[in-house]
Amino acid sequence: MRIDQYAFVPARDGIFAVDGGLPSVSKEGGEFIDLLAVLPPTRFLRVAGHAKVAPEHYVRLRVFEPVDSDGVSPDEVDVPESMRPAFGRCVAELRGTPPPPRRPAWSEPGWHEEVEAWVGAPLEQIRLWPLSAVLGNDEVVFKAVFPLFGHEPAITEALGVPRVLR
């Protein structure tokens, strides 16, 4: 299976682009982490769109936190046809359209820094998906859950995890 992955990265006055297009990687069965190698320092936030373009060929548009880089106008960026709807939604949000109301908090810029401030330590992203986010370091693991799973801290505490912060 081949996966082409594109990055939507907000930057000053626009978005980060490479040679007139979205930063991208193409790989057989690739993970998003490969895309981080072609970006300035940033954090991954969410999948903004995906499409099946052939039986064994997929494309994904992934959104990353803003970078401190000169941006180009999204109107000037070459975008593959299969990514245009998702790209359009990202541009609309960049220009002020509110995000969908059910989007998890961990999919928004600044959330990771808020968690690090609350925990009082730097944290690496371990797992991020629509139902939860897991961050951690050598001493602490932080998990945020979708509201439906708000009972998880009590269950984790009952299982004997040494210390659960709420």
In spatial order, strands of the major sheet run 4-1-6-5
Order of helices and strands: EEEEHEEHHEEEH
Number of strands: 9
Mean pLDDT score: 89
Share of helix among residues? 10-25%
Distance between the termini: 41 Å
Strand content: 25-35%
Shape: globular
**Helical segment count:** 4
Main sheet, how many strands, which sense, barrel? 4 strands, mixed
Estimated radius of gyration: 17 Å
* Unreliable segments of 5+ consecutive residues: none
Structural class of the helices, strands and pairings? alpha+beta
Please give a structural write-up.
The chain is 19% helix and 31% strand. Strands 4-1-6-5 form a four-stranded mixed sheet. A three-stranded antiparallel sheet has the order 7-8-9, with no helix packed on it. It has a two-stranded antiparallel sheet with strand order 2-3. The chain is α+β, with helices and mostly antiparallel strands and 166 residues long. The mean pLDDT is 89. It has helices at residues 33-36, 84-94, 111-119, 152-158, and strands at 2-8, 10-11, 14-15, 24-28, 44-54, 57-64, 124-129, 132-136, 141-145. It is globular.
Keywords:
9 strands, 166 residues, 4 helices, 31% strand, alpha+beta
SSE arrangement:
Blueprint: E1 2-8, E2 10-11, E3 14-15, E4 24-28, H1 33-36, E5 44-54, E6 57-64, H2 84-94, H3 111-119, E7 124-129, E8 132-136, E9 141-145, H4 152-158
